[in-house]
Amino acid sequence: MGRKVTVYKPTSVLYTKDQLMTIFKSHDADGDGKLSREELKKAFKYLGSRWCSYRAEQALRCTDANDDGYIDEKELEKLVDYTLERRYTIV
């Protein structure tokens, strides 16, 4: 008799709101409390985005309420919600 082999398929788990908040805050390289386009680009690259420049631009367009070119503390939750809608996963 042959041995039974169990095959496990890799699964993906969605990031939580808290995890995304931590990731974005950790990409504030200069510590000014705001995320620049370049910092957003690096954050989306970290999250596995194939088009991190495009995603950073779209995120700014959708979440930068005061149109200053940065995501500040007030806008961060909206950025996290935007990212959750795109269903980024932990691989």
UniProtKB/TrEMBL annotation:
One of its GO terms (molecular function) is calcium ion binding. SMART domains: EFh. Residues 15-50, 55-86 form the EF-hand domain. SUPFAM superfamilies: EF-hand. Coiled coil: none annotated. Keywords: Calcium. The keyword Lipid biosynthesis does not apply. This is EF-hand domain-containing protein. It comes from Castanea mollissima (Chinese chestnut). The lineage of its organism: Eukaryota, Viridiplantae, Streptophyta, Embryophyta, Tracheophyta.
